[in-house]
Each structure stands twice: as structure tokens, then as C-alpha cells.
Amino acid sequence: MHNVKLGGSDEVEVAARQGKPGDGNAQQNQAVSRWVHLWKTIILSSLSKTTYPYCRYIRALDLRDLKDLLEDEKFRTDFSNDFFSGELSQFRKEMETPVKAKSRTKRPLRLNTIATLEAIGEAITQQTPVLEELHGEITSTALLRWIPRLPKLQQITLWNGAALANGVGSTLHIHCPDFKILRFYTWTAPDTDHFFAAFLQDLRPQSLESLEIISYSDIGPETFLALNCHSKSLLDLKLDNIKPEAMPALSMLKDCTALGSLSLAETIGSTDLEHTQNDIFLEVIGWLRDCKNLQNITFHKFLSGPAVLTPILLESNIHLVRLEVTDYAASKAKDFHQALAHQQSLRSIVLKSDGEVCDINALVSSLCKIVHLVDLRLSNVSDFFRDEHICLLASNLPELETLWISGWGITDQIWSYLKLLHFLRRLDINAWSSFTADGLLEYISGLGEGNRGLFLAVMMADPESALSEEEQYIVQEALTMKVEGRFDYTLARDPDAEEYNESDSE
Question: Cα(245)–Cα(226) distance, rounded to whole angstroms?
């Protein structure tokens, strides 16, 4: 038992969905019962109440999973009292203010989930000498107590980054020489930038390899400067929802040139570095040009993203494997689209624009030259693709396994070309289309072993030429029989008809 995480909530949900009529509740009970048993065993092991010392071998402790269990409705109604009985009764922590009940009977006390998790974590971490990963909604005081017991700790995932303040960095420095990976969801406070920078500076120099901020935070210049303390070790950097006022400070990351993966996202996409702060814009380009090991780049809501990336794509010493750019102005991105062709190492491209018309031929021509693409996902930027554009892509990209594409007026003409994609496992056509059952069946008849498990989605079928329910069933059955695939079919909405119906009802 190296990883304490059952994923109970998903299992319960699957059991409820897949159960036969009448037995859904029994399957849910069985799933939650296994979930409960796992955690009871671990907690009892921490108290030396099990025959086998399970805790001594735990390498990953995910308290998020335990939190999901404690907040699960089935657990609360049917399992909670038994879970917190006997030796485990000491861990039940209740809210000071009772929950109001509808009746006049004695009001029940609500479980204080965070306090309960901390009490359980306190017990478990005293018996986990080889623990390498710690995940959960953990307070700063708990971290300061637990870290000295965990000499093998390598990575931490937190809900609130504020738990890293108050000397946690120094404690990791002293007790956890292998610590290298940090993730947190949020940290919003006036002093966030200062305290997080202090944390980064307190760690062992050149030790942090991966940092991911998943949601909103108030990081800024101090944090970016402090990250240079790990310029040679930092390989993976993901900063989501960067505030607009912090975007100009990105150039302060200039020494972090060991990066292999970079993901940047602004909160609202309003900072135009190219035209308002061109000196910083050029410094950001200079920084990325020095990142010779870059393989993965993701830019979300980065207004100057395509302009920043264009010279990077043209660098002969940079060999990207995956590129994702969303929320960009397609009409101004011709140079960016053409530069894509210079990165022959690309295996995955995800582009989602603002939906404005772009130079379609330039984009398609560029993509067709990246012949080893495995994953191509186009949204909005391909809204004006026609049959011939999809046919060109299919003819030139034989290794595709995933293709998401939009378009207009798409017909059965594409199927003979899509047949050439012998490794395709996912095909999403989010385009106004007029496919026939015969065309779909002809395509399915040509699928082979490399297409096994194909998911085929037609998401905007023209209502005027829609497949009947019987035809949809025939296509699904043929796809299942041929490659054990799945077919999803959705009609496009007619906005004019909807508007008419609404006005008519008034």
C-alpha cells in the first residue's frame, strides 16, 4: 500500500450510473464501504492497532480523498457513526455552532472536516517515515509539525498557499533535502507576493523543480525574482490566472532557462505587452529564446502570446513537442500560424482563437508540414474550414490519433480522406455538417485495428439533413462491431428558430 487514495467519489458515482435497476443503492453502499475500510485501516495502523504496519510503507498521502469521503452524503448518513467509533472516536471534531435542524429535537453537531483531517493527519504522519507526497487542505501549523517527521518528502499539494508562510520554507530546507515539487490552488492576500517570495528563498537553493499555481493568486514581481533562486533546477512552471498588473514582471524570470514546460495564463487577457510595453515584450522573447530545453508551451488569455511565440517557433535550437494557445486574435496571427511549420518536432497542437476570420490557407498549409502530429485540436480558429481543408489535413498528417475540428458546410466528402488516418482514436467534428448514414457507414467499414476504441462525435449536424434515430442506432452498432467504438450525434441549434419561438410565446 504505497498510495493512500481510493478515488471513492468517482467510484460511487460510477456505481450509481452503471448499476442495474434497483441495485444502485447496494452498489453505492459497497463502494463507500470499501472506501471507508481503506481509511479505517490506515488510521488504525497509525495507532499500531493492525497486524501489519501499513503506514510504514506509505509513499503518498492524499488527504483530499479523505475529505471527499467525510463530505460524501452516503458516508454521512450511513457510515459516519461506525467510522468514528472505538479507537477512531478521538478524531471526530465537531463545529462549535450546531446545525439548525427542522424539528425541535436536539440539534445535531456538524463535523468540522478540516479539524478532523488535521487530527487524522497528525496521527498518520507520525508513522510514515518514507512518505514522499503530501496532498490536502492543510494548515501552516500542521505543516510545521508534520514536515520534521517526513525526511523523504518530495512534493506537496495544498488548497491555500498561505499555509506556506510562517517558516515552512526553512523547515523544508532543514528536514527535507529531496523536496522539489509544489502545487497549490489559490493564495489571495495583500502580502501574498512577499510571503511566497520569502518561502522560495528559504528553500534550498536550486532545489525546486516544479511549481504549479492552479487558480487565482496575488503573486507578482517578488515571486518572479525569487524563482531565480531555482533558475537551474526549475523544469516545470505553470502559473494560472496571473493578474494583469503582474504580467509586465514576467521578464524578471529571465534566469529561469532550464525550463522544459511553461504554462502562463492571465486572468482576463487584457495586457498587450507588444504595443504598450515593448521593451518588456522583447525581454520576455529574449528569456524564452534562452530556454533551449523547452518542449511544452501553453498560453491562455495571453494577448501578446502569438507575437511572443513567433520568434520562438523560428529558433532552430528549440524543439517543441506540445503547443497550446487559446483566446488569441486569429485575424492578427498569420505570422504565428506560418511559423508553426518550423517546429517539425511538434506532436500536439491545440489552438482556440476568438473566432474571427484568419488566413485559412496559411494555417492549413503550415499544419500540413508538421507531418508527425499525433494530436491536433482546433476550436474557433477553424470555424470557416470547408471540406477541402479537412481533406488536406487528413492527407498530410497520417499519424494523427486525435482530431478536433470545427468548420462550415462539411459533407461526406471528408470520409474517404479520414480513412487514411489509421491510428485515429478520437474524432470530434464540431462543424455545421450534412453527413449521411451511408457516408458514415462507408467510413466505418474502412477502419482497422489502429482505430480500435474510436470515439466519433458529430456535434453540429444540420437539422435539415439530420440522421433519424434508427440511422444513428445503425451507425453506433456498426462502429461498435468494427472497432468497439462509440458514436455521439448532436444537432446544431437554429438560433433564428429559437428566437422566433421565444417571441411567439410572448
Answer: 18
494, pLDDT greater than 90 = no
What number is the average pLDDT over the span 454-464?
Answer: 96
3-state secondary structure of 70: helix
- Report the DSSP beta bridge partners of residue 404: 377, 428
332-353 pLDDT, tens per residue?
999 999 999 999 999 999 999 9
Residue with cell 482576463: 268
H helix runs in 79-234, sequence order: 80-83, 113-124, 140-146, 168-175, 192-202, 221-227
- pTM summary value: 0.89
The beta-carbon contacts of 280-287 under 8 Å, at least 24 apart in sequence, are: 280/248, 280/250, 280/251, 281/307, 281/308, 283/251, 283/254, 284/250, 284/251, 284/308, 285/311, 285/312, 286/254, 287/250, 287/251, 287/253, 287/254, 287/256, 287/257
**φ/ψ (deg, to 5) at 128:** -125, 75
> H/E element holding 379?
strand 375-379
pLDDT of residue 15: 39
Give the pLDDT confidence score for residue 84 in this predicted structure. Answer: 95
Q: Please give the backbone phi and psi of residue 352, each rounded to the nearest 5 degrees, phi first.
A: -135, 110
